[in-house]
Specification:
Layout: H1 4-11, H2 19-27, H3 31-41, H4 43-53, H5 61-77, H6 89-104, H7 106-114, E1 132-141, H8 151-163, E2 169-179, E3 182-192, E4 195-202, H9 203-211, E5 217-223
Antiparallel strand pairs: 1-2, 1-5, 2-3, 3-4
Length: 224
């Protein structure tokens, strides 16, 4: 008795086989061939997407392959039938899979980077073995709680705090002064008249202003 999986593996096209033959077999009903092609011939594509586009999410390569396989299979391989053989099939899959998976996980990426950030997610800037030459944390704050106003503007800030929690400004955290694990001071850059100006705020005051954005934070990093 023949094992259908083994038989399909034997039929898996090699790099010398025309993409047209691969697509024809798949749209004619060989879904197992499609799964094997994605896992064996396109594994590096999905590894790249996971490591560079979806690195903040806890996903495995097999998760992405399964997601994309289901997408391709919809409506009798409708998307695959749009392939016009103007490039290699793997190149086409790279483009289509990147677009689809980024769209599919867009909301999760947004939520992960946007709200509820914890201080533990901000590493020490002096940690031994830190692998980034440039790390910046951009946070949303209520500027009125950090930069006091006088007169009518000051009264407006007080009323605003009574009525709602609303961030209205962005700062760049450059360092956190910690003493025995306790955050004592936040050092930040504030852009004033187009120029970066350094400020230092006590932890409780800074956290109160940051809380108004539900701890919005975006991390920008560059590997060395």
């Amino acid at each position: 008795m023949h094992d259908p999986v083994d038989e399909t593996k034997k039929c898996l096209p090699n790099t010398n086989t025309e993409d047209r033959e691969i697509v024809t077999r798949i749209v004619e009903g060989n879904s197992l061939l499609a799964a094997l092609f994605l896992k064996q011939k396109c594994a590096k594509i999905f590894e790249y997407i996971k490591d560079t586009r979806l690195e903040d999410l806890d996903l495995q390569v097999d998760d992405l392959v399964s997601d994309f396989f289901i997408y391709l299979q919809e409506n009798n391989w409708e998307k695959l039938r749009t392939f016009r053989f103007e490039s290699r099939l793997q190149t086409w899959i790279n483009v289509v899979a990147s677009r689809y998976l980024l769209k599919k996980y867009a909301s999760e990426l947004k939520e992960r980077s946007k709200t509820g950030a914890q201080l533990d997610s901000i590493p020490s800037f002096t940690d031994e073995g830190h692998h980034y030459s440039t790390v910046r944390f951009i946070v949303g704050v209520d500027a009125g709680e950090l930069f006091p106003h006088s007169g009518i503007e000051g009264l407006y800030e007080i009323m605003e705090d009574w009525l709602e929690r609303r961030p209205d400004h962005a700062l760049v955290i450059t360092d956190i002064n910690r003493f025995h694990g306790v955050n004592e001071e936040f050092r930040v850059l504030n852009f004033e008249n187009g120029l970066p100006v350094k400020h230092t705020f006590p932890s409780d005051r800074f956290m109160d202003a940051w809380d108004d954005s539900d701890y919005f934070m975006v991390m920008a990093k560059k590997k060395v």
